[in-house]
Amino acid sequence: MEETLKALVHQRGAVRGKLTRVKNALVHCDAVPNPNIRNVHFLKLYAKTVENCYSEYNAFQNLIHALPLSNERRCEKEERYVEFEALYNELTIQLSTLLEELIPKPEMLPPDPPAGGNTIAPVAPVLVPQHFITPLAVPLPTFDGTYEAWYSFKSMFQNVMARYATETPAIKLYQLRSALVGKAAGVIDQDIINNGDYEAAWAILTDRFEDKRLIIDKHIEAIFSLPKLAKDNSIELRKLVDACVKNVQALENLELEVDGLGEQMLINQLASKMDRDTRKVWETRQDPGELPSYMDTIEFLKQRCRIMEKVETNSAKVEIPKPVRPVNKSKTLVTTNELQCTMCNNTHELYKCDEFEKKNISEKYNLLRRSGSCFNYLGKGHRTTDCASSSTCRKCNKRHHTLLHPVETKAEQVVNPTPTTKSAGESDSRSESTTDNVTSVETKHKNQNVVLCVSSDLQNKQTLLTIAVVLVYDYGSNLHPCRTLIDSCSQNHFVAERFAMQLALKKYRVDYQVSGLNGGITRIHNVVRATVKSRVTSFSTELELLIAPKITTDMPARSFDVTNWSLPTHVELADPNFNKRGRIDMLLGAEIFWDLIKTERIILSENLPSLRSTELGWVIGGVISEHTPVIARTFCSVVERDDFRDLLKRFWEIEGAQDLHQDSTTTTDECIQHFQNTFQRMPDGRFLVRLPFNERKSELGESLQMATRRFLTLERRLDQRPELKAEYATFIHDYE
User: Fold this and answer.
1) Which of 46, 67, 234, 707 could form a disulfide bond with 308, CB atoms 3.0-4.6 angstroms apart?
2) How far is CA 339 from CA 11, 374, 648, in A?
3) What three-state secondary structure class fits 518?
4) Distance CA 52, CA 484 (A)
5) Cβ contacts of 34-40, under 8 Å, gap ≥ 24
6) For residue 556, is the peptide bond before it cis, meaning its omega torsion is within 30 degrees of 0?
7) pLDDT tens digit string along 84-100?
8) What is the pTM of this model?
9) 3-class DSSP state for residue 508?
10) CATH says 424-654 is which class?
């Protein structure tokens, strides 16, 4: 309660202080005359202030009465209220008296005596007002803070105030503050208002809004932003002409004449904004070999406006009302809603159709596309992006119907609106040979079957896939060796996420779905463009690589000995360590596969793989001898787990590895150098650094005079209130 009482008393004291300042402003004596007491506007302003103070003081006093105070303290607060009322009454009477003296009363003149001296009934007196002109009766312009309107406002306001040279600076300042609206309201601070410094207020406004360069830029920007006319329309053409003329005249007032190159650029801008018919007429009036002039172009557009206005007025159609025959109308309130299935034409919804449910995913999507139906609601009349239904798939919560959810257990391609590509795992020749012996190791995650690997239990032979080691350029044009799988059954090229991070190349956002063996689906969200170079030949190409979490498992399945193989010595292998198990970081697809393969081929023996010449070197592929021990036969299949991919994505975003290769800028180096040259360590542990300035410091302008003037104004104010001066000094010392 004490804190509340203290705050209310402090606020009440501030209101009383306002009345005290009004009382001091009305002091007048012969030795020091006060011109303000002979000004009607000054007195009306203070009369309104006194009334507002009375209302505010009563509000605070009522809140104090509501507090549970002792009788002694309550009496003390009431005594202060009585003192305030006495001061209020004194000021109200004084202001009313001064206003009555200044505002003259109308004189009452008796009526003229009747002719012939006849006596008639008395007539009410006639009121004849005196000729009294209220100061500043002319309406003043307003300024909303737009730079383009500053010069016109300044000129009109100063011309009006020049007619009232006898007005005091306080009244002029009051009128100036009232004329500021919008963004300009509040630019003049309260100290200048209290001191009545009219010249300082103009100096602040001039410094803030009289930026000649900025005003010129605004007018030029308005000229280049003129609207283009699509058809003959007098209203739009008039707007175009008025906007152009207004901005050009403003630039001429700023001593920028329309001539030379600027005139031709302005005419070209106007011509580009004309509609087709107006442009034709204007072009026919131009003499070949002579440059058009701005004034002639504006005069042509004004004349065309007048012609179009006359034509539009005369061609206005007058609608003649036709006789209306009475017609007997009847209304029915019966509403029918006939449902028809787009699959079987029966009367039921599509999602209840048994035939539709038996279709595979591809056939369902094709049917919905042909009928123009929504993938989410399965109804006609709108697309999925415009569907107002809040329902989603009950299995994956995505924006499609549950009947359209991909079934991973079926070995078929899932048709989806997003781009789809097949990975190397869908090689027909490889899958057909192991149909009866292939086992799919799966895991359940979020109601989805995700293929982790595909292997065969056959122990009698092993197949080598074609692998090559290529060189890839990174962000800094450095070369990195990369073990690459060459596969003709992949529609796209892929790179492992780990290797893509090592290259530090710029990533681009994409949206792909990659389908693999047994319907396994992987979503690809990023792609990089990298240059791949051969280790052996001069072959080099730029590829677009989809970033996958992992290409495949280490290949081959196990390391084996090739000392007994009769490998040719005159050939250079694309992968010298083809017989050693290692990581695969890239996959090259069918887009480049046939450009790499050459015609030369070397067959080692009946039970060994063969060698094929490529642009990347000689690759080895085929079946290994059945006497070589084999653990598993591996197929390449791009798969993922969404939760693990999201976890890795968040990890790299937090670590910010993509920012490690950003080049330092000149501004960054200058900031670091400035800190090293100017910082100090304070005794309390804080750092002290000098404020930095760049080469644009000169654009701040000369503000010393204004700062000095405001400082002296503050000093005069503090000299009048010693208590406030002491508190201000204490506050400033805390920051020394």
Assistant:
1) 234
2) 73, 16, 48
3) helix
4) 85
5) 35/168, 36/168, 36/170, 37/98, 38/102, 39/135, 39/167, 39/168, 39/171, 40/99, 40/102, 40/103, 40/134, 40/135
6) yes
7) 888 888 888 888 888 88
8) 0.30
9) strand
10) mainly beta
